[in-house]
Amino acid sequence: MLDNALTTLSPNLLNKPASKLDQFNAQQASSLTPKEKMEAKARAAAEDFEAVFLTQMLTPVFEQLPTDGLTGGGQGEKIYRSLIVQEYGKSLSKNGGIGIADSVYKDILKLQEV
Fold first, then answer.
1. How far is residue 106's CA from residue 94's CA, in Å, rounded to a whole number?
2. What is the tens place of the pLDDT at every residue in 10-69?
């Protein structure tokens, strides 16, 4: 019964129309000049770099946290912790970070001018 419900849901999920936000972003991206598109890609790359850096810096902190004996520990928790640390890194970077993204962004733009 559950399999039947999942197979009837799957086609609807795969063929779902784009959300209004996706449509707005597509319209906005099509109206950008090539220079603005390049700058947006450079900013995204700089923020991704900072997110990876922050993730690498936060990983040892979270590895040292003790686990709850009753429900914690095991391989599942290791996987979950690595995923949550990645999300923390992304979130920190998107919300201002520690300034690495700004420096990397400026350097990317300088390199592309040459």
1. 17
2. 444 445 555 655 565 666 667 888 888 888 999 999 999 999 999 999 999 888 887 776
CB 93 within 8 A of CB 47: yes
Task: Extract the tokens encoding 70.
Answer: 């009753």
Q: Kindly write down the DSSP assignment for every residue of 84-102, as one continuous string.
A: HHHHHHHHHHHTTTTSHHH
The 10 Å CB-count burial string (b at 16+, else e) for 62-95 is eeeeeeeeeeeeeeeeeeeeeeebbebbbebbee
Ordered DSSP codes for 49-71: HHHHHHHHHHHHHHHTSPPPTTT
Q: How far apart are CA 54 and CA 52, in angstroms?
A: 6
Report yes or no on whether pTM surpasses 0.70.
Answer: no
Determine the pLDDT at residue 53.
Answer: 94
Type of residue numbered 73: G
